Input
Amino acid sequence: MDFKLIASRKPHKACQTLNKFCLMPAKAEFAFFVILTPFFGKLARAYWRNPKLGYHTPMNLTQIFPEHGPVANLPKHDRNAWLKGGGALCEMPPRVPQGQAWRIVLLGAPGIGKGTQAELLCERLGTCQLSTGDIFRNAKCLQEHEQTPSMKDALGFMRQGALVPDTTVLGLIRDRLRCLRCSGGFLLDGFPRTVPQAEALEKILQEENIQLSAVLNYELPIERIVARISGRRTCSKCKAVYHVANRPPKVADVCDHCGGSLFQREDDRPESVEVRMKAYATSTSPLINFYQQRGLLLTISADGSPEEIYQRTRLLALGR
Output
């Protein structure tokens, strides 16, 4: 018996998404898979139609059933439109989310593990991480003709060692409105940082008829954050990062990769971290109140492993 078609987990060549199975030639020994597909499809639909998690959309046999979240193990977004702005387009079209498309703002002090959570959330929800810090880092690598006016202004302030003003940051965001309109959703990281920025973002989203799903605020006692950051050690040669307690090198003060000496950065020293944490708390408190008044704020403990924090986020926030 020669079955010519079989479902595959590889991304579809035309769309690079896994919202549908790709079809490819198969040998007769795989016939059992095709026969059992309806049975396993029913089991998967029953398992993932979980009201606690808020995914009520029935799943059909044209969708992947991930192990740990709604959209797991998908190719990462190239984020070309976000990094370059202007008329740039992403090479990979947006994923089709299972259930609703999430539009999230992420808050959290430096060193709290916000970046790790952003990666997990984007990987498993199918959203795209939109980080203003990535825009600034990527801007230095672009040719002058690739830079938008807002990006050129931002680079000018950065070369002077000055903070990029709100008007310039908002210009960068407006250059990237297509990313906010993306059907796959988004996760904003590093923006907004102030109430004026939050008010401006709110106005932009209203103009585009887009509604935020949630604002996730990760919290941890200051002494725990100080311990996390002050334990970091950086290689003087290859810049690899270690932690004296959580990720120590095989040989004390020696890099595992290149043998370079490890050192503690000036801004990782306990006294420097405490100053940064106090400044963050002062600047972020009004922003937290802003989103709390709008019923969007969800405060989540950042204690535990990355997976434990993600599961806590999933139960407290994603299952609303």
